[in-house]
Amino acid sequence: MDSLKEDLKKHIIEELNLEDLQVSDIDDDALLFSADGVGLDSIDALELIVLMEKFYGIQVTNPDEGKEAFLTINTMADYIEKKKS
Amino acid sequence: MYINAASTISHQPTFQNAGFSKLIEPLENSSELISPNYKEYIDAGLLRRMSKILRMSVAAAKDCLKQAEIEQPGAIIVGTGLGCLQDTEKFLNTFLSVEGLLPPTSFIQSTHNTIAGQISLSIGNHGYNMTHTQNTLSFEHALIDTSLLLSEGRDNIVAGAADEHIPFLEEAAEKLNLPSKNNLTSGASFFVLSKEKSDRSLARLKDVRTIGLVQDIDTEIDSFLSDNFLNVSEVDLILYSDLSPRVESVANKYFNEHYHADSKMINYTKLSGLYPTNSAFAMHYGIDRIQQHPELKKVLVLNGLNKINLGLTLIESLET
Amino acid sequence: MAVRITGLGLISAIGLTVAENLYSLENGKSGIAPVKYLDSERDFLVGEVKCSNAELSDHLGIKAQPISRTSLLGLTAAREAWGNNRYTNELRTGIISATSVGGMDTTEQFYQDYLDKNDPDYAVLRCHDSGNTTERIAAELGISGYINTLSTACSSGANAIMLGARLIEQGKLDRVLVGGTDALTNFTINGFRSLMIYDDRWCRPFDESRTGLNLGEGAAFLLLENDKSIRFSGNSTICCLSGWANAADAYHQTASSPEGTGATMAIQNAIDVSGLSALDISYVNAHGTGTKNNDLSESTAMINVFGDNIPDFSSTKPFTGHTLAAAGAIEAVFSVLAIQKGLIFPNLNYKTPIAETGLVPIMELQKDQPVLAVLSNSFGFGGNNSSLVFSVHR
């Protein structure tokens, strides 16, 4: 699970061009879409959907489902685990 | 209209470097874009997605606002010949080669008006927001729009132009047998244009005209000058682009016929490198020359970069 | 303000001329269907002009190649609007077109060959840039001088019309052909799919169940003239362009603000410029793309400006598809037709009001209406919002 989270952070930094961030800068429970957290926006949300398909083979067809899944690194990792099992 | 601020990011040391016109030499073939530290100008959240043309444009536009001490301009008007090439090429590559879902960012940022849009977004401006794209005359069209807006009662307008280089352009130029003696470069020049003269005014933009599908260059220049009650011998400096031999020969003719001790003729494409809106570089260069040489009163930018189009811009010193 | 409109030209999924378009509008005939002319991988629902490039070239008598589909569509509409007008040195004549894709229809074919190393034809790149699209149209019509192209995504066409009106108002030109053109491309279809706002079913503007847009293609031009030009041409005035405005939303790169800030400013300012009041607007030709975001934001803006007195309104995009830079120009011609023929066009595919606003568009064609003033909205990417007001010529 920890390696999954690490992996996920790497992909997010890479795909979303978060140039200034290191893997260690993103807390597992930091709110991804909050200005106090990582500060992502709705374009990033679309990029995350692409990322889920590209790296994990998961199709997020319902945007509302995405909203819940993309809350934090923890929720994203849970979502991936759940979809894979 | 008065030019109250000017800012250029280019392959020359133009950015925040008043007096650059005294320093610069024609570009070497290996020249590179001289970028400022963009983080000082652009919010990190916006910057991370921005291609070269967006970074250059937003930074230059914000630098202008700072120089002019204006928080909100009355409008934002941009000219671009080829637009956001880097993102256009990226999205072409993506959708033609990726199977499955496509990342949207490069598509969003491929449209020409991303430049003006990002400037408005980065300063929260709700004014008139326009993008002109008429290849080599895009900048002049942005200036004409600016003059209309000033007459309509808006003031302190950010107007400028930008184009970005991508490596593919060299390949295309070669295959299309386009003249390759010039460096293909990137550049962004922005200005604040105002109705009234102020302490900060750098020069006066007297007139600007575009002639698309031009037939008789001599006649067009004559009528432009006579409409401005000007004899060609009164022009102290002609800045011209050299891709069109016709324009060069016309400029030469004027120069030889009307030569006076202080008159000069400079090929600005040799200084800026080649991109569709490099007449915006020429305007900044002309303004900077006027600042450095008080004897310079009238500068004419003769944009003949594309042989079917002619752009004419007349800049005057404040003493005129 | 009032600038006279004396010529119209239009080509879209519902017809190759103004008359054919009017017929389809009056008979509820949508032009949206599975893709047929564009070389595309899937059966997307699109509003294609029902003509191949070869047929368009033949029809126009165009020999010089390469030429983009965007230019071919633009020239077809521009010729119809220009009609039998003659070029003269006595009048300052200009042309302003709008396009968002320019020659992308040919560039994307080139680029596929380029990636495949399949002998790509570099010559087509000469018609890639948007300015070239307009230069080709100008050259074919014999117009030189003020030739310009605007590119502000989905509001481009409206902006071209606005700029033309301002040039005439300020005495810079005597007459000007204004409009927009965009061909359907895989670039834009894939782009809107990547934003997850491309509907695989028919678009349903202002309906609670809306999930996105269908792209279309086409072109439209209008001829604007001042008094001097009309004395020369003897053209009769169809109606007037009386108001215009552009405002930036400055909210988000793609989405419109939920408060409809930029849209409200554009609508209100355009009505102010026209000298009319909000109550004078007989019909609103809405931007109404069918995306969740646009239609909600636009509805909110209409409520902001009109309050309880929302005029009859509809989106005609279920007829044509969203034609991007051409949309503002095509819908400007529809607005003129509404005034000229006393019609209000239906919003096809509508069933249920949007929960947040409850607005109900016109669902059936309304005939013999006193349509005195029409508001046409065009809202684009990057928060570029424009509105135009057309009114009867008195």
Automatic annotation (TrEMBL), chain A:
User: Which keywords has UniProt assigned to this entry?
Assistant: Phosphopantetheine, Phosphoprotein
Keyword Repressor listed? The answer is: no
Q: Which InterPro entries match?
A: ACP-like_sf, PP-bd_ACP, Ppantetheine_attach_site
Q: Which residues form the Carrier domain?
A: 2-84
Q: Does the keyword Electron transport apply?
A: no
What Gene3D superfamilies does the database record attribute to this sequence? ACP-like
Q: What is this protein called?
A: Acyl carrier protein
From TrEMBL, chain B:
| Annotated Pfam families | Ketoacyl-synt_2
Q: Cross-referenced Gene3D superfamilies, in alphabetical order?
A: 3.40.47.10
List the InterPro entries.
Ketoacyl_synth_N, Thiolase-like
**Annotated GO MF terms:** acyltransferase activity
Q: Which residues form the Beta-ketoacyl synthase-like N-terminal domain?
A: 45-167
Name of protein: Beta-ketoacyl synthase, N-terminal domain
From TrEMBL, chain C:
Entry GO terms, CC: cytosol
* Any single GO BP term: fatty acid biosynthetic process
CDD domains noted in UniProt: KAS_I_II
The protein's matches in InterPro entries, at most eight in alphabetical order, are given as: Beta-ketoacyl_synthase (IPR000794), Ketoacyl_synth_AS (IPR018201), Ketoacyl_synth_C (IPR014031), Ketoacyl_synth_N (IPR014030), PKS_Beta-ketoAc_synthase_dom (IPR020841), Thiolase-like (IPR016039)
Keywords from the named record? Transferase
MF terms per GO, please? 3-oxoacyl-[acyl-carrier-protein] synthase activity
Indicate whether Ion transport appears among the record's keywords: no
Task: Please state what the protein is called.
Answer: 3-oxoacyl-[acyl-carrier-protein] synthase-1
- What is the residue range of the signal peptide feature? none
Q: Which family does it belong to?
A: Belongs to the thiolase-like superfamily. Beta-ketoacyl-ACP synthases family.
Domain spans labelled Ketosynthase family 3 (KS3): 1-392
**One matching Pfam family:** ketoacyl-synt
